[in-house]
Design goal:
By secondary structure, the chain is an all-alpha fold. The protein has 7 helices and no strands. The longest helix is centred in the C-terminal third of the chain and has 25 residues.
Length: about 170
């Protein structure tokens, strides 16, 4: 179903048009009494007419949590570095569901549906996994995990990721 057709259906519902009123509107705007087979421009004309009658389409839902792009970026980086086997959205959503299962018993099916607190949990778990993978790969190659800036322990995630990218990516 096209976006314009979806908007027509949402507009019909939001304006509480009964079947006759809806079909009369379609006929008035397009000459047809059914939305089936209408072109995108005809459907958009119907949406415009609905807007004149008070329909206010809501903007397309954006990612609820600001961490979602960072989660995706780390996932793709982990794929490029060989730490995950699939870069697909399905694989990422499977990981998200597994990481959120303890929170609600079922898990969140799609990354876009994460609330901010859930996204933080997923992001931190992903960073820990990535950190372990990078640290292990460095050690296997005979290197050492760099120290933190105060030289009191190992580097944090950001520093290790930059170190790994600079010295170990492309040298597999």
């Amino acid at each position: 179903m096209s976006n314009a057709l979806k908007l027509v259906q949402i507009g019909k519902r939001d304006l509480q048009l009964d079947d006759d009123m809806y079909r009369n509107l379609l006929e008035q705007i397009t000459g047809a009494r059914s939305a089936k087979g209408l072109s995108e421009s005809q459907l958009n004309a119907v949406v415009d007419a609905m807007k004149l009658r008070g329909f206010k389409p809501k903007p397309k839902a954006q990612a609820r949590a600001a961490e979602v792009p960072k989660i995706r970026a780390i996932w793709l980086t982990m794929y490029d570095q060989g730490f995950v086997r699939s870069r697909t959205e399905v694989a990422l959503n499977t990981y998200v569901k597994r990481m959120t299962k303890a929170g609600n018993g079922q898990g969140i099916d799609r990354i876009e549906w994460l609330k901010p607190m859930q996204a933080v949990v997923v992001l931190e778990a992903l960073k820990k996994w990535h950190y372990r993978g990078m640290a292990d790969a460095i050690i296997v190659r005979g290197g050492r995990v760099p120290p933190n800036d105060k030289l009191t322990g190992p580097a944090g995630y950001e520093k290790l990721a930059a170190h790994y990218e600079e010295f170990y990516c492309g040298n597999k």
